[in-house]
Amino acid sequence: MNEILEKKSLAQGITLIKIKNELIARKALPGQFVVIRLKEESERIPLTLQDYDPQRGIINIVFQIVGKSTKELDLLKEGDTIMDVVGPLGKPTEIEKFGTVVCIGGGVGTPEIYPVARGLRESGNYVVSIIGARSRDLLIMEEEMKAVSDELHVTTDDGSYGRKGFVTDALKELIDKGKKIDRVFAVGPVVMMRAVSETTRPYKIKTLVSLNPIMLDGTGMCGVCRVEVGGETKFACVDGPEFDGHLVNYDLLLKRLNTYLKQEKESMELFERSCKGGCHG
Ligand SMILES: Cc1cc2nc3c(=O)[nH]c(=O)nc-3n(C[C@H](O)[C@H](O)[C@H](O)COP(=O)(O)OP(=O)(O)OC[C@H]3O[C@@H](n4cnc5c(N)ncnc54)[C@H](O)[C@@H]3O)c2cc1C
Ligand code: FES
């Protein structure tokens, strides 16, 4: 259980791992996530399911190395096991036939939007996907997204590939061209999800975003993942992680995400010091 069957680097600092877990693979649905703990004393980290194979009992995760825990995860090799993988958690994405939908993925949001786009296409929607990255070398999963979309638009901030600009520029262009859009789904950095929500707000296009507050238990018990949506407190792990993007209090979310920056930096420095000459992926 939880053996790493495959590990692949998708881009600088972004890794895909395939983990053996029959139970989760059998139950997983688009939009859901797992909470993993590498060993007894490790912290818990929530990661979205990029894909799942119920027949072979395998789940896929794509993660960005941002701090101590994701660095430690990246040090594991094929054949190693992860102590706990809990899930599938969170409410699955509401998938039905809406008409024309736009699926937007920014950075490591792209692997997260992939099963959503696939599910929406399988349900008969016309799927327009927009994926973006800072530059060409950080762009991931283009082929996979092409395979599950009727149209794919690619943006890079620096113009090194696709359309120069942000995913919101491509979205605005579609709206300005008069494309009728029934629903937008966006996953990526908080600032990106806020910008997407502001782009669609004047047009009243329903927009779903997947929130990423700090989480601990992932089961609605600890209260750490609370977010404000439509003036009400919600727990992202059990009420979400998907919410109506026009109702999210993004300022509060950003503030809460930055609460432990000092401790996270210290923890990474300690880890790197303890690793000197010893830890290799
Ligand atoms: C529902 C959900 C799904 C996610 N899916 C993915 C994914 O598919 N791929 C991916 O790369 N990342 C994903 N994340 C973010 C991922 O959990 C964090 O990047 C990770 O926990 C960072 O841990 P760290 O110790 O390496 O970094 P740290 O140095 O501890 O933190 C770096 C930043 O990561 C965030 N973070 C830290 N701890 C947590 C935590 N327990 N919960 C949430 N955010 C945290 C904070 O914003 C923090 O500033 C998801 C987060 C949530 C809530
Ligand atoms: S992570 Fe504990 S309540 Fe959501």
UniProtKB/TrEMBL annotation:
Cofactor, how bound (note): Binds 1 [2Fe-2S] cluster per subunit. Binds 1 FAD per subunit.
Alphabetic keyword roster: 2Fe-2S, FAD, Flavoprotein, Iron, Iron-sulfur, Metal-binding
Gene3D superfamilies found in the cross-reference section: Nucleotide-binding domain of ferredoxin-NADP reductase (FNR) module, Translation factors
Binding residues for FAD: 62-64
InterPro entries: Cyt_c3_hydrogenase_gsu, Dihydroorotate_DH_Fe-S-bd, FAD-bd_FR_type, FNR_nucleotide-bd, OxRdtase_FAD/NAD-bd, PyrK_electron_transfer, Riboflavin_synthase-like_b-brl
One of the Pfam families matching this protein, by short name: NAD_binding_1
Family matches, as PROSITE patterns: FAD_FR
Chain residues that bind [2Fe-2S] cluster: 222, 225, 237
Cofactor(s) the record lists: [2Fe-2S] cluster; FAD
Signal peptide: none
CDD domains assigned: DHOD_e_trans_like1
Domain FAD-binding FR-type intervals: 1-95
GO MF term list: 2 iron, 2 sulfur cluster binding; flavin adenine dinucleotide binding; metal ion binding; oxidoreductase activity
GO biological process: pyrimidine nucleotide biosynthetic process
Highest taxon above the source species: Bacteria
Full protein name: Sulfide/dihydroorotate dehydrogenase-like FAD/NAD-binding protein
Species name: candidate division WOR-3 bacterium
